[in-house]
């Protein structure tokens, strides 16, 4: 949930989230979440396809789309999980740039263990836009996905090193 709140504070352009439908069940937060997001049931192929159609309509209306490409959060001690293809396919199909954003402190501030976490700074880094003009899915989706992930992973490693 902190990713969502940090996005709202960081990005000033109008955008809509693509998010997992389970979060809509959280009291109060869920009320606003389901009214501002394109909800996806990650277990349903049909739902995942419907997300693309809904996202395309929103893009055509001038909104940006925010997708967290990890597709979930691992409870394991992984700095950054592998990315799924969806955000990159959408960007290439519409020839719109990818904007990698690093959230450095979310797991430390709000971890999975109820009595852990700590108050403190929540650092955000908005990286340079990655253009998709002229790219095709066949040749560039995997490369774009890996480039985005490496930018964020490298920044997380810098933040981790600086905080210790």
UniProtKB/TrEMBL annotation:
<feature type="domain" description="Phospholipid/glycerol acyltransferase">
    <location>
        <begin position="1"/>
        <end position="106"/>
    </location>
</feature>
<dbReference type="GO" id="GO:0003841">
    <property type="term" value="F:1-acylglycerol-3-phosphate O-acyltransferase activity"/>
</dbReference>
<dbReference type="InterPro" id="IPR002123">
    <property type="entry name" value="Plipid/glycerol_acylTrfase"/>
</dbReference>
<protein>
    <submittedName>
        <fullName>1-acyl-sn-glycerol-3-phosphate acyltransferase</fullName>
        <ecNumber>2.3.1.51</ecNumber>
    </submittedName>
</protein>
<comment type="pathway">
    <text>Lipid metabolism.</text>
</comment>
<dbReference type="Pfam" id="PF01553">
    <property type="entry name" value="Acyltransferase"/>
</dbReference>
<keyword id="KW-0444">Lipid biosynthesis</keyword>
<dbReference type="GO" id="GO:0006654">
    <property type="term" value="P:phosphatidic acid biosynthetic process"/>
</dbReference>
<keyword id="KW-0443">Lipid metabolism</keyword>
<keyword id="KW-0012">Acyltransferase</keyword>
<keyword id="KW-0808">Transferase</keyword>
């Amino acid at each position: 949930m902190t990713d969502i709140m940090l996005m709202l504070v960081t990005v000033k352009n109008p955008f809509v989230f693509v998010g997992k439908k389970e979060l809509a069940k959280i009291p109060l937060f869920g009320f606003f979440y389901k009214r501002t997001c394109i909800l996806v049931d990650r277990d349903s192929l049909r739902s995942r396809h419907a997300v693309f159609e809904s996202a395309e309509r929103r893009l055509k209306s001038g909104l940006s789309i925010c997708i967290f490409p990890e597709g979930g959060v691992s409870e394991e001690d992984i700095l950054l999980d592998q990315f799924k293809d969806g955000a990159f396919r959408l960007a290439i199909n519409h020839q719109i740039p990818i904007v990698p954003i690093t959230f450095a402190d979310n797991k430390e501030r709000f971890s999975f263990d109820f009595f852990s976490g700590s108050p403190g700074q929540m650092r955000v880094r908005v990286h340079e836009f990655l253009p998709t003009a002229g790219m095709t899915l066949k040749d560039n989706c995997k490369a774009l996905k890996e480039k985005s992930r490496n930018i964020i992973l490298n920044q997380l490693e810098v933040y981790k090193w600086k905080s210790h």
